[in-house]
What does this fold into?
Amino acid sequence: MDTWKFYDITHREHVVCNPMSEEKIGELVSLLRLERGARVVDIASGKGEFLIRLIETYGVSAVGVDVSPYFVASARGRAAERVPSADLVFEEQDGAKFVPGRQAGFDLASCLGASWIFGGHRGTLEALAWLVVPGGWIVAGEPFWRKEPSREHLDASGDAPGDFGTHVENVAVGEELGLSLVYTFVSSGDDWDRYQGLQWLAAEGYARSHPDDPDLPYLAERVAREKETYLRWERDTLGWAIYVFRKNGE
It folds into this structure.
């Protein structure tokens, strides 16, 4: 089954495609206090909700980058409805290969939950820091271990202990790179449950409305496996947070 088709199906009920509530995304937007016309780039921009809210609030100039053709199409449609005259472009490409059309110099660079693009949390912060001006914002969403995962958990999920740090270790990575942490948003159990549950709901609804899709056996098996992993281990072991840093300098 095509990877991006799978995520399109399982995230059809989502506005924000990560384990953070829409309310907390709204708080994040309010906290940033960007100047009108500020330049923003969001890597793995999903359905574009974060950028659209920034435009609605501050009138920023924005670029969204995502490799999923489904999410890019959704983002473009949502932007056309809500901010039709905005200086906003959604590019369909691998975020690791994104090259700004002009000198980097963004006022904010973000990647909310796709650090695999840059080889992990450290690589993501390095890439985002390169994109922003001194004093600019770096916003990264990243999992963290709440406690040491069991061998059963790791076998079921395919994760390794070194794939993620703890919450404090995620902060320390940014500080080691010379960034200043100014805020964190941590997903609650309710945030996680909603993010996961909407995937189960979407997959079940798709199966009912597309009974002849040959990808249904794979979809059902994968969703069931990920559901069990989440309920049995992940919910109590793996956290998720958005880290808000400033790039030092004038």
Remarks:
- The chain is about 45% helix and 20% strand.
- The chain has one domain: 3-245.
- The beta strands are 39-43, 61-66, 88-92, 106-112, 132-145, 179-186, 238-247.
- The radius of gyration is 18 Å.
